[in-house]
Queue: 4 jobs
Job 1
Amino acid sequence: MSGGRPSTAGWWLVAPALLVIGVFFAVPVAAGLLLAFTDFDVYAIARPDRLRVVGLANWGRLAHDARFWVALRNTAYFVLVGGPLSIAASLAAALLLEARLARAKALFRTIYFLPVVTTLVAVAVVWRDLYHPRHGLLNAALALLGLPAVDWLGDPRWAMPAIILLAVWKNFGFNMVIFVAGLQAIPERLYDAARLDGASAWQRLRHVTLPMLAPTFVFVGVITLIGYFQLFAEPYVMTQGGPANATLSVVLLMYEEGFRWWNMGTGSAIACVLLGIIASSTVLQLRLRTAEAERE
Amino acid sequence: MRRIAGTIAVNAVLVAGAAVTLLPLLWMVSASFMPTGEASAVPPRLVPSAPTLAHYRALVARLDLARAFANSALVATATTAIALVLNTAAGYAFAKLPFPGRARLFRALLAALVVPAQVAMLPLFLLLTWLHGVDTYWGVVVPGMASVFGIFLVRQYALSIPDSVLDAARVDGAGELRIVATLVPVLCAPILVTLGVFTFMGTWNDFMWPLIVLADRARYTLPVALANLAGEHVQDTELMMAGAVLTVLPVVLLFVCLQRYYTAGITAGGVKE
């Protein structure tokens, strides 16, 4: 290859990575879309000739499956409540860290970021204990405040809020780092000008900081959305989707259908729904922001 | 005067936030050293009365968690090594070696970032069944060997390499393969550390794919082994906390040592958007 023309060399250097992505990602994704139109199950693994094309039957069955709608609703709950809460926590932490009066910023940034790098399964095990109705620290803290104990993971009303709280704790540091970078990119002279005009701290936040962070919000919103739709390990470890299916998520349902009951056709149909939701809401979010930016 | 009050207020909130953030992790460490039963005492104890290593010993001797630790280390190291080679080669080429269709190919890769990994998992599992990769280490490694994010990271960084440096190497008779193998790792060292840390941590922490691929306990990675324990030893809080510490400790240490590189990776994607 030595002395080869750069354009040929370029192909050769890209090829191994593309081959891996192609064989182990692109082809499976395409196959997944096809699988969703079949009745692929545990018998078809041994005898592929038994495979039948069933058209839209998998989706038809899902549409009449109460658990599928519950999983969709739970996932929407997690994304629509947990997502904004996470982003708000990230923004608050970033604003605090970037406040002029803050001391020991590097130390606080490290601490706030720590949950992001921890293993989800491990911290889910820890939080399951914090949520313990009898000896958990959270109920002990509530008792100190004179509040009644809550059966966090055992009560269908509280199980999803409990998982959201864990997710906010685990993830806020990630977007915080992005917000900090966004804040540092805002030119100081904009604040100076606002001060000259007599703007209060709140007005500077409202009319300088937040508008200047708009592109950061788009990015953070999209990655949070994509990540949160994939809710899986938290309910798997903490509640197994219970109580009464209150934390059953779309990916957990896909896992159960595909890998516990080996209904791979149905599992793929669920995966397709997930893809459709993520892709369309990403596009929608990007469109909304672009439209907003053009109006300004 | 107002300034002092403000300083106190801002820093008090920062300290409170840090306490809330650290509490679950400190509790995990503290409870892992408590004698059996103490972590579920009412009212709760925060510090062990008589610190003990019994649970760590039990995990290693009785429950073979050292094996899971070694499995995780092996899988994460192998994935990181391969991903570094493949993503660096591709990232460099996308940045510096024009070839027909390059721009379109790169855009297609970026669009693929919207596709969640779960969509590929069922067919990937069938593919591995066919290739006899189910319940093997390489079955766990395979999907992480190259990534769009990794290629993107290296490409963005490699764009800043001056062409004159590359041309000088070419004039000296170096082929593109040699440039990638010797020059690019030196010129892109910081971003390669970033990519390495990201890949290692991502693989170490990954749960769903190893859960699907691995069947034999002897090959479980730490998160899978821990989730399995969590189902069996529900009452044994101290033991579970020790298992959580063992799982989290390597990645936390790695992050504390290399955090500058880690956070650089996050903002590389965000700010240039």
Note: Chain B touches chain A through 102 residues (CB under 8 Å).
Job 2
Amino acid sequence: MKGMVGLFLVLAVMVVVPALESAFAAGDEPGEYLDRRVIIWNLFFRMMTVAFVVGAVVAGTIIWQCWRFRESHPKAKPTAYEGTDW
Amino acid sequence: MSGHSNWPEWIYVGVIIAIMFWVGAEAWEAERLVEHVPEDAETIKVTGQQWFWTFEHEDGTKEIGELHVEVGKAYKFEIMSTDVIHSFNIHDYVVLLDAVPGRVNTVWFAPTDVGQHDIQCREYCGLIHYNMRGTLYVEEQST
């Protein structure tokens, strides 16, 4: 489990640090010529990708939980507060 | 509750926080890029009033309802209003900013292609709001 935590930590740092660096590097220097349509739509598409991936993971997790922890699952075990009359 | 572990929850929380940081940083970076005006941008004063747009170039030239610019140059719009809140929009170039009485809002863009584009008020501003339109003419560079 510690390995997993370490892996996620490394992945998070790899993703977050470059993004934060470029944002913090912002100063009052004059801007460069760019096509705002490209910047804005790129941001939109990336955010939509993240939103749909997160939505799929969350929905998938909920579906799996409902399937795995249903009473009729072969490996279902009663919890302490459900009593022993199973 | 033997054998219970909180690690999945903590990993979940960590991933969510990392994603939110990433989303925030990306949005911040995009905002920084589109808000920094190039040094050589020409300033155009844009005034919204019921129900038309007025444009004033740096050389004093004024236009009403239409705006002529040159391809490949950067333009900074200083947007203001003389009466109610309007919103200056060039849809094809993703320019959209409110014109608020008593304030000067700025936005810049650099047209990439020769052509005509619609200018439209995007904030309901009264009876003729629907027709508070203009035309952007992007022309070849004169020099």
Note: Chain A touches chain B through 33 residues (CB under 8 Å).
Job 3
Amino acid sequence: MRTSSAAGATVYVALLVLAGCAGREMLPEPLARAGLPSQVELRHAPFFPQRDHQCGPAALATILVAADVPLRPDELVAEVFVPDRRGSLQAELVAATRSRDRLPYLVSPDLSSLIAQVAAGRPVLVLQKTGAGPWPGWHYAVLVGYDLARDMLLLRSGTEPRLEIRMPQFLATWDRAGRWALTALEPGSMPAAADYARYMEAAAGLEAVGRNEAAALAYEAAARYWPGEALPQLGLANLAYAQGDLAGAERGYRAAIDRERGDAVARNNRATVLLRMGCPAAADREIDAAAILAADGPHTAAVAATRREIGSTGVVDGPGCPPDAAPAHSGS
Amino acid sequence: MSRRFVVHLVCLALLNLGSPLVAQAGMIGTLQAVEATTRAQDLAAVNAALAREQVRAQLAALGVDRAQVESRVAALTDSELRGLAGRIADAPAGGDALAVIGVVFLVLLILEAVGVIDIFKKFP
């Protein structure tokens, strides 16, 4: 009696689950279809069948080759495979993309943005979570096509060169993996539906690991695409300073300040450059402005360090010092 | 003993510190500026150095060739290192799509246990 009621309950639950699956044919999120071709397949994105647990190197090779980096998955294993995890970490896929001088752009977490990349000709590496409970499974695949009329996506996945998957089914696995998606950009080019913060974080990552030429191309592209924003100017100025180009760096920081007068970072760095240029009085005025703006923020310590450095020198500017940057508050 | 070790570690880490670019004391790197605008960045540089040490040790412990550990750690940014430190053993590591088999097996096992199906007894 007890067994049969338990069996009944199990069957009931199983039916509910099945019904739930069948009922999810509707896309759970609106899809921006306007202006996109109704069907795309990126035939130029190569397929590398994965070997034991190495979908990371295989998927990464697909997007890198599509971004004009000639390589094979084997060359990536030593960089991105973690033997005892039998898999690859997201951060290391990003790092290996940077090491090839490609900008690792993390696509906005919605299906429309994924499809927009594919429509623009770029395959997208996606993380999927399969399995359940004590058996989680993580898998990398590459989105290489879609068909809007049929709500289908096309993946290079594992040993499948052309895996067709219904959008709701894909969304379920992608959603559980945190909607993580990576595309590799040749530096200087822009992703479809470019997001400023995501793009700048990727560009600054190139600079942070010393890929300066790629970072410069990325900042220049950002400066053209978002001409009113300060960060691309700051990035270019930091690169100029790293090369010892003080005058270029000073102009760059001033350009950043023109766009964002409350930019404590640009003012702090400009003060350092002014000091090196033999303009301690101008540096003194700039670091005063930076100190007020940086109060209690994340850069307070750096600004205080600059302040101390300037404080110990003279107060008379040499010849040929640049004009002051715009004041912190317009009208003051 | 352990305190001395930590002090030495921090000293070493501080010596190794610094982005390859903006090395002066008060200069602020672009990534730091970006992160300050995208999320609160309250972790000091010392944390990044310790995170680097942790990631280095964990990668080696998980079977990464020691000759490669150094270059792999060097390719990560400070914020990526902070995100990975202490979590490499359970962070998502994409490998196979096969784990779904585990779920099918589990369902079969439950159905078997409650007597709905009877397949496993055929394999004594």
Note: The longest strand of chain A covers residues 135-147.
Job 4
Amino acid sequence: MGSKSEWEPRIVGFLCKWCSYAGADLAGSGRKKYPANVRILKVPCSGRVDPLLILKGLRLGFDGVMVSGCHPGDCHYQTGNYRARRRIALTKKFMEYIGIPEERFKASWVSASEGAKFAQVVAAVVKDIEEVGPNRLFAEDGQ
Amino acid sequence: MDSSMEQELRKEARKLLEEGKVDHILGFARGSLKFTATPFITKEKEEVASLVINPFIVNNLAKFLIELPGRVGIVAKGCDSRSVVSLIQDNQVIREDVVIIGVPCSGLIDIAKVEKLVNKDRDEIDDIALQGEKVAVIIGGQKTELPTKEVLFEHCLGCESPTPQEYDILVGKPTNAVGDKELSRREIKKLEDMVPEQRWAFWKEQLSRCIRCYACRQVCPACFCERCFVEESQPQWISPVSQWQDNLMFQVIRNIHVAGRCTDCGECERVCPQNIPLRSLSKKMSELVDEMFHYQAGIDKNAPALMTAYEPVEAEDLIM
């Protein structure tokens, strides 16, 4: 691994198509600047995000994983994000207990009209991950 | 747990079979090794004489209910009955199809701990009797007393309800087991006191010993998916080869999957041939579930399962 200046965080982001994905679109059309470190995957709902996807992202070597969905009460499917919230909370706390730094997995609520918030969230996530450094958890000499 | 309880159990089991209230009796019989018991299923009323109750009935029988056809009379300790309730909540078991024969439990003895403390093989031990705070071990006519706390399984020390709360028939009198919450979670406490890097190193080392026999999954009454994610091949979520990275992923995901179902019966850790401290994962998960969502598995058969329910406001501090 090269020096810190050569390394750029690679983050996988699971965004709900009804809100955060459109929020990311709005950030773009609104010419909001934010770090280009997130590879975005569109999911039908934050409730779709199995903890398996989060772990798999880290296992594949992504430096961080983010999940973003609709604000509580705004779910297109009524309750998807409420269920996602329980799952996210448990996954986050349990991963911390295993020894995965909490910076590596972030969740947020971003609506379709919050382009600016999306830009802020990404900037904050990238900044946190830059501080913890490259993900070497699953490397053979993992640490 | 004494012979009068055994007599009562056999009488009740026989009655259930005679009256046609159940098709099967699911309980414990004497094991082939000394100080062991084995799961026992019978349809014959003459065979109920094989049923036993002692501090070695370690298995969680709830797992058998998922596949056993017809109406079943199950001999259930506190932890077993919680698992049955959890299966009812998940629609895996129909309440009307089971007759729960509750057995108040005084804790289960880990024979390996006894062997170690008295430095004798189990074949050399004549008798072991659980007597409240003490366990009497008879070797060659000599009696040695051991503190109960040191020979019980650790999950028993943390047991909240040794007497089943959900039952149709209760055999014997309600008990209060010898408990010690601190002792029961001491391994977890050790991990909590470490920094994340140490915890990661700990689990990496532990799980590099995993041979992926899946005994933990097979024995777990909370693991009832017909198709487990570890066997999916398109996409292949984790490699079937035993390597610590995938072993670790397997355990993390398994524990998230059983969150809200795990009743801390300790079976995963007991059956692990590699002695991986799996209960330090499952017990911690149960604690997180309780702290964040005030939910205990297997307490209320009418409550919605943890992951199917929600409160309008909860866990918001974890989300940006």
Note: The radius of gyration of chain A is 15 Å.
